[in-house]
TrEMBL record, chain A:
Its EC number is 3.6.5.4. GTP binds at residues 108-115, 191-195, 249-252. It comes from Lacticaseibacillus suilingensis. This is Signal recognition particle protein. Composed of three domains: the N-terminal N domain, which is responsible for interactions with the ribosome, the central G domain, which binds GTP, and the C-terminal M domain, which binds the RNA and the signal sequence of the RNC. Belongs to the GTP-binding SRP family. SRP54 subfamily.
TrEMBL record, chain B:
It comes from Lacticaseibacillus suilingensis. The lineage of its organism: Bacteria, Bacillati, Bacillota, Bacilli, Lactobacillales. Its main location: membrane. SMART domains: AAA (SM00382), SRP54 (SM00962), SRP54_N (SM00963). The keyword GTP-binding applies. Keywords: Cell membrane, Cytoplasm, GTP-binding, Hydrolase, Membrane, Nucleotide-binding, Receptor. It catalyses: GTP + H2O = GDP + phosphate + H(+). NCBIfam families: ftsY. This is Signal recognition particle receptor FtsY.
Length: 478, 333
């Protein structure tokens, strides 16, 4: 299968290795080959891979790695750390001009998602910075590109400056900036036409716009599905424009996004944002460590937690926890939970972020049908309040009625009740600190252990944060 | 006779249909030179046949966007082949490799049908599908122009009711090409638009109906179902249609192309691929990848921004160009 993660590849390489008393150079070579292939498979540029593997090899040859009991995990850790390091240690915020307006200019190939990103970015700025942006429509080439920006502007209630398609883009930008100065807009976002990095004429146009507008940010918008060509594109644009950052789009697809690594490596410029959906709020800050996990097919627990925190009602969660503890968790709570989970996004997306499930070949054909959730909901709604509160009431006759009421076969009703009871039992166990029932959830073998590693990592981070918070609170008191 | 031999013959017997090939040559100049140069550079650095050489070869193939699977498979086969033929000199090795590449390419393409199919009577329907930003609307705009030039009556259906400005974009193409567009307001039901379009195509006897759809990532279950519905609507109204379901694929896409082809094929049974932006990717290898990994014929290629830069795909000419200068002109024995 084309999409197996690094963990699996490494497991293969190490399965033979474990039986040996001593690890040889040749074994290391095999391992490095697997790493190389895994990265190439994730669309990382082959030149970048070469350098990368060299660095990893040097580290992996250290005695403590190969002598350790878990060389596979040690090496994954090295790769993960190195990936994170290569992509920049921390998230990089947008540049902001000392005096208004902050000018942000977009550049990129056709169909990368520049116009959509302009919309998302202005929404982001309005929400996080109370910005009053002005959008400049400088794409005069693609049919209806200006209309597209105008529609987005309307949706977001952001003014769009355009002069039709007959004016030189440089002139449009000049007048647009003048208008921004007049209206005292604090952000100006310039949408430009898509172009090939080898198109001399159009690249000169971009350079002219740059010379005129002195943008504080030149964001290269790149499709995350881009393959080996990503380096050429990034290099081309960077050489002409000296970009200040990158936006990686369409990451809500099932691409591994190795392009992120390639681009960062050849340009040295930070990836600032990622686009993860078609809606206007689907723009997120880029976190290198999370991307590293994704490229390796290790899931993205942190984003999942972020999302959960954003959408989860803490008080309700507390109540649920209480109920789990008392083992009085009922269908009403289940319904509530379902609502909250759905707020976090589609099940597919959530599953992908769980370590061991992302890019797990067993999960490859697993699609959670959004309809399934609807069916479950229908079943739940077909129960009487008494039944929802006390699942034990559900005798066969009641089940038949529920099946008829919700329009599903009785099999499905039984299935759901069984699942509910299992989940309830598991949650209760988990609450008591017994994780043994969870193992199946996290996949088997190495992916399971990997999952645990990620879990532990996460718990550590959370503890650290908590400590920080406590410290800050103490500080505040005294 | 394998493809390799016929190409070799072509080298011996002068250029095949020189004039016709010219446009092709021009558009793919960059792809070709990069691919050829890469191979040449590889052979220039050739010292001996060892693991490092094959690692380099593998990297070169992946770098040329031949695709991961194909590259690994090719390298493995070449490893055996070189051993089998006992090639040691740089010359011999390069011949063995090029021959193998060409033959594998020919083999995978056996029985491949690269032509667009039209209905024998009544309207022909082409359905265009693909991820966001692949170039569906632009391809339709260009194809409509060409079909009209060739004397066909063309109708466009604006099935992308989701993306801001998508309907206007297709309508603008309609104005440029002077062909009618069936559209509804933004946010409308795409299946309804398609239904109206099919009905109109039937009633007013249009030759070809080109159906645009919204870009969608292949892992979005509901959006894929919407596509399924669109196709069902077409089939219900015209049982023979759609004659072609074309997956529009950006040539710069990496491994994800495989997943795209697979998922879209599952929902809509794609009949061909339109490979866009091939002028920019600079690496022709993607065509090898599509053949070997996707098993769907490439039917159209986008070689530039101009109207007639959308070209029917001629696989033999393409491979001829790809390996130009790499095959030694040996007299036919």
């Amino acid at each position: 299968m084309a999409f197996e993660g690094l963990s699996e590849r490494l497991q293969k390489a190490f399965s033979g290795l474990r039986r040996k008393g001593k690890v040889t150079e040749a074994d290391v070579r095999d391992t490095m080959r697997e790493i190389r292939l895994a990265l190439l498979e994730a669309d990382v540029n082959f030149g970048v891979v070469k350098d990368f593997v060299k660095t990893v090899r040097e580290q992996a040859l250290g005695a403590e790695v190969l002598d350790s009991l878990t060389p596979a995990q040690q090496i994954i850790k090295i790769v993960n750390d190195e990936l994170t390091k290569t992509m920049g240690e921390a998230a990089v915020p947008l540049n902001k001009s000392a005096k208004i307006p902050t000018v942000i200019m977009m550049a990129g190939l056709q169909g990368a998602g520049k116009t959509t990103t302009v919309g998302k970015l202005s929404k982001y700025l309005m929400e996080n910075d109370n910005a009053r942006p002005l959008l400049i429509a400088a794409d005069v080439y693609r049919p209806a590109a200006i209309d597209q920006l105008k529609v987005i502007g309307e949706q977001l209630q952001v003014p769009v400056f355009d002069m039709g398609t007959d004016t030189d883009p440089v002139e449009i930008v000049r007048q647009g900036l003048a208008q921004a100065a007049l209206q005292k807009n604090d952000y100006v976002l310039i949408d430009t036409a898509g172009r090939l990095q080898i198109d001399e004429q159009l690249m000169t146009e971009l350079a002219n716009i740059k010379a005129l507008a002195h943008p504080d940010e030149i964001l290269l918008v790149v499709d995350s599905m881009t393959g080996q060509a990503a380096t050429d594109v990034a290099k081309g644009f960077n050489e002409r424009l000296d970009i200040t950052g990158v936006v990686l789009t369409k990451l809500d697809g099932d691409t591994r996004g190795g392009a992120a690594l390639s681009i960062r490596q050849v340009t040295g410029k930070p990836i600032k944002f990622i686009g993860q959906g078609e809606k206007m709020d689907a723009l997120d800050v880029f976190y290198p460590d999370r991307m590293a996990n994704r490229i390796l097919g290790m899931g993205d627990m942190l984003t999942l937690i972020d999302k959960a925190q954003k959408n989860y009602d803490e008080k309700q969660a507390q109540e649920v926890a209480e109920k789990i503890k008392e083992n009085t968790f009922d269908f009403n709570d289940f319904l509530n939970q379902m609502d909250q989970v759905q707020n976090m996004g589609s099940m597919d997306e959530i599953m992908k972020m769980i370590p061991g499930l992302a890019n797990n070949p067993a999960m490859k054909n697993f699609h959670v049908d959004p309809k399934d959730m609807a069916h479950q909901r229908a079943i739940l709604y077909s129960m009487t309040p008494a039944e929802r509160e006390d699942p034990d009431l559900l005798n066969p006759s009641r089940r038949r009625r529920i099946a008829a009421g919700s329009g599903v076969p009785i099999m499905k009703v039984n299935q759901m009740i069984k699942q509910f009871n299992q989940a309830k039992k598991m949650m209760n166990q988990m609450y008591k600190g017994n994780f043994s029932g969870m193992e199946g959830l996290m996949g088997n073998g190495i992916s399971g252990r990997l999952g645990k590693m990620a879990m532990n990592n996460m718990v550590r981070k959370q503890k650290k944060n908590k400590k920080k918070r406590l410290k800050a609170a103490k500080h505040f008191k005294s | 006779m394998g493809l390799f031999d016929s190409i070799k013959k072509a080298f011996g017997g002068g250029q095949p249909e020189a004039a016709e090939t010219e446009k092709y040559d021009e558009g793919l100049k960059k792809s070709r030179s990069t691919f050829g140069e890469r191979l040449n550079a590889l052979f220039a650095n050739f010292r001996s046949v060892d693991d490092d050489f094959f690692d380099d070869l593998e990297e070169m193939l992946i770098g040329a966007d031949v695709g991961f699977e194909t590259a690994v498979k090719l390298t493995d086969e070449l490893r055996d082949e070189v051993k089998l033929q006992n090639a040691k000199q740089a010359d011999e090795v390069s011949q063995v490799i090029v021959q193998k590449l060409v033959d594998i390419y020919g083999e995978a393409g056996e029985g491949e049908d690269n032509t667009l199919h039209f209905a024998e009577s009544g309207p022909t329907v082409f359905l265009f599908v693909g991820v966001n930003g692949a170039g569906k609307t632009t391809t339709i705009g260009k194809l409509a122009h060409q079909l009209k030039e060739s004397g066909k009556t063309v109708l466009l259906a604006a099935g992308d009711t989701f993306r801001a400005g998508a309907i206007e974009q297709l309508q603008e193409w309609g104005r440029r090409d002077d062909v009618p567009v069936v559209a509804t307001q933004a946010g409308g039901d795409p299946a309804a638009v398609v239904f109206d379009a099919v009905k109109r195509a039937k009633e007013e006897n249009f030759d070809v109906l080109l159906v645009d759809t919204a870009g969608r990532l292949q892992n979005k279950v509901n959006l894929m179902k919407e596509l399924d519905k669109i196709k069902r609507v077409i089939i219900r109204e015209l049982p023979e249609a759609p004659q072609e379901v074309l997956l529009v694929l950006d040539a710069t896409t990496g491994q994800n192309a495989l997943s795209q082809a697979k998922e879209f094929n599952q929902t809509t049974k794609i009949s061909g691929i339109v490979l866009t932006k091939l002028d920019g990717s600079g690496k022709g290898g993607i065509v090898l990848a599509i053949r070997n990994e996707l098993h769907v014929p490439v039917k159209l290629v986008g070689l530039g921004e101009k109207m007639d830069d959308l070209q029917p795909f001629a696989p033999d000419k393409f491979v001829y160009g790809l390996f130009k200068g790499l095959i030694k002109e040996t007299p036919e024995s």
